[in-house]
């Protein structure tokens, strides 16, 4: 069953491109990664889902509720961490959690205590005394405290140290086990690999591909490193590379995605070959293939 359904969403900001024709669905209990370089359109897509902005075209539903007509009811079942967090600075963290709980008409004090302990957050502090990373923890706990059915995180881990990031990923896995559906936007590829089931890659406002994390990593790409006895022009290998990772006079390293037999037969014919290794590439390198020439500032 699809919990989040996005069809042909398009949004421009005046003359500037936001997103174009974005379509994807997220199933119940899935952790879905949303990956793209700066300015790709991740936050625009998420802000549309939250009805913070309105589309030029297309539609989106969460739990079969229209994101633009029924956002009030959607908010009751949703937890959201924005990419930038802003709070009433003079409030104590514990009071903010209490205030949020009242909005959901629930006593969430036990859950907020447990989560604060796990993420190492001192809830007796005033928000204006917190570092950027600790403010991010406040946002994460606030999103989780009312046990929502759907979680939307826009770059949630920026500012968190590695130990806390791992604890956060553990929390996400536990939520998934409870059947919670999670949309997780990030440009840190490594973290997506750790927790997500599937990933959509967005570039310049358009979805490039939607893949299972495992199939992305295992089935399609291999990393090939070849060293040569003498200086080599590498031409035949350059032609079969989907992306060259590194190249100098005596070595070449590249991402290969074609027929393995073509590669092996080229290697066999190469009298200049000194050594070769074929390994599984990092997800980072796989994504870089999609990212090529992708970075664009806001
Ligand atoms: N308020 C705005 N006014 C004008 N253009 C905007 C606005 N917000 C976003 N854009 C443009 O829309 C495009 C998508 O931006 P968006 O913030 O959605 O990207 P992103 O993938 O979330 O990037 P980042 O990882 O840097 O947060 C960019 O070209 C950006 O310049």
Automatic annotation (TrEMBL):
The keyword Transport applies. SUPFAM superfamilies: P-loop containing nucleoside triphosphate hydrolases. Gene3D superfamilies: P-loop containing nucleotide triphosphate hydrolases (3.40.50.300). It holds the Pfam family ABC_tran. GO terms for molecular function: ATP binding; ATP hydrolysis activity. Residues 4-229 form the ABC transporter domain. Keywords: ATP-binding, Nucleotide-binding, Transport. It comes from the Bacteria. InterPro entries: AAA+_ATPase, ABC_transporter-like_ATP-bd, ABC_transporter-like_CS, ABC_transporter_ATP-binding, P-loop_NTPase. Belongs to the ABC transporter superfamily. This is ABC-2 type transport system ATP-binding protein. The lineage of its organism: Bacteria, Bacillati, Bacillota, Clostridia, Lachnospirales.
């Amino acid at each position: 069953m699809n919990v989040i359904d996005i069809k042909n969403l398009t949004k421009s900001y005046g003359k500037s491109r936001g997103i174009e024709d974005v379509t994807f669905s997220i199933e119940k209990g899935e952790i879905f990664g949303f990956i793209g370089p700066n300015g790709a359109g991740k936050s625009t897509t998420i802000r549309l889902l939250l009805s913070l902005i309105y589309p030029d075209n297309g539609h989106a539903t969460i739990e079969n509720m229209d994101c633009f007509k029924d956002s009030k009811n959607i908010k009751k079942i949703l937890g959201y961490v924005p990419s930038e967090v802003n709070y009433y600075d003079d409030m104590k963290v514990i009071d903010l959690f209490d205030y949020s709980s009242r909005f959901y008409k629930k006593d969430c004090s036990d859950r907020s205590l447990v989560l604060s302990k796990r993420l190492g957050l001192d809830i007796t502090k005033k928000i204006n005394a917190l570092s950027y990373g600790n403010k991010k923890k406040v946002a994460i706990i606030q999103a989780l405290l009312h046990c929502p059915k759907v979680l939307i995180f826009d770059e949630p881990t920026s500012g968190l140290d590695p130990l806390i990031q791992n604890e956060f990923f553990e929390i996400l896995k536990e939520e998934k086990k409870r059947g919670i559906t999670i949309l997780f936007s990030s440009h840190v590829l490594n973290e997506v690999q750790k927790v997500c089931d599937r990933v959509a890659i967005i570039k310049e406002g358009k979805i490039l591909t939607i893949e299972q994390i495992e199939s992305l990593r295992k089935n399609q790409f291999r990393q090939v490193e070849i060293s040569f006895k003498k200086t080599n022009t590498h031409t035949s290998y350059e032609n079969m590379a989907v992306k060259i990772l590194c190249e100098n006079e005596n070595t070449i390293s590249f991402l290969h995605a074609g027929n393995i037999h073509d590669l092996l037969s080229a290697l066999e014919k190469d009298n200049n070959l000194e050594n070769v290794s074929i390994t599984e590439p990092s997800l980072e390198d796989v994504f870089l293939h999609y990212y090529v020439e992708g970075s664009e500032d806001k």
